[in-house]
Specification:
The structure is a single chain. Helices cover about 50% and strands about 0% of the residues. It has one domain (about 30-175): Recoverin, domain 1. The protein is mostly helical and about 190 residues long. It contains nine helices and no strands. Helix 5 (about 70-85) packs across helix 8 (about 140-150) and helix 7 (about 110-125) crosses helix 8. The model is unreliable at about 5-20 and about 185-194 (pLDDT under 50). The radius of gyration is 18 Å and the shape is globular. One of its GO terms (cellular component) is extracellular region. Its main location: secreted. It is found in: Secreted.
Length: about 190
């Protein structure tokens, strides 16, 4: 009897945890307003590619973190960005030297956080790739990994202390595969020059 009760509690707990991670991607507040690192991240302009936006337009309708169309858009868009910025090798794998050189900042509060995130994500991005997607470079997985790591350990000097931002950081910590758009705002993506 105890085994059945434990199993039921575990199953219900697992279902509740999964439900809280399958929500619409948070936009209020935008992650970049909670962890204000956009102005001190010199690589951000490359992430806002008008050409790649045209090749991979955002799917219409409600964008869910688990929506395959959204996931494909996100991963392939970032692969296009990396390709356009010579961050991929001829075999479409990440050019580690070029990526390390691009993902840097001179800001003393962000630099150590970003450095650890880049190192960690370069060693783990390939395990995050979805074999069902046609874009297999790992550029999207790497970028999402870096954004998540920077956001969850955002330097105190760049963090906006609020109930909403703290709740968003808690959600990102509890939902390790939930996408976070740290370097993009609702007004910037697809509206850049170049």
């Amino acid at each position: 009897m105890q085994r059945i009760i434990v199993f039921v509690v575990y199953t219900v707990g697992l279902a509740v945890a999964q439900d809280t991670c399958n929500l619409t991607m948070p936009t209020d507040p935008p992650p970049g307003e909670c962890c204000d690192v956009i102005p001190i991240s010199p690589f951000v302009p490359m992430l806002l590619s008008k050409d790649c936006w045209k090749k991979y337009p955002r799917p219409s309708g409600s964008v869910m973190a688990i929506d395959p169309a959204f996931k494909r858009h996100d991963i392939c868009y970032l692969e296009c960005v990396f390709s356009d910025n010579a961050l991929l090798g001829a075999d479409l794998s990440l050019n580690v030297t070029a990526v390390r050189a691009k993902f840097v900042t001179t800001d003393t509060t962000l630099s150590p956080v970003l450095s650890v995130a880049v190192t960690t994500c370069l060693s783990s991005y390939s395990s995050l790739r979805d074999p069902t997607l046609e874009c297999q470079s790992g550029a999207g997985e790497f970028t999402n990994c870096v954004a998540r790591r920077v956001f969850t350990v955002c330097p105190a000097a760049r963090w906006t202390a609020s109930t909403e931002c703290d709740a968003l950081r808690d959600q990102m910590t509890k939902c390790p595969t939930f996408p976070i758009k740290l370097w993009c705002s609702a007004h910037s993506r697809g509206n850049t020059k170049g």
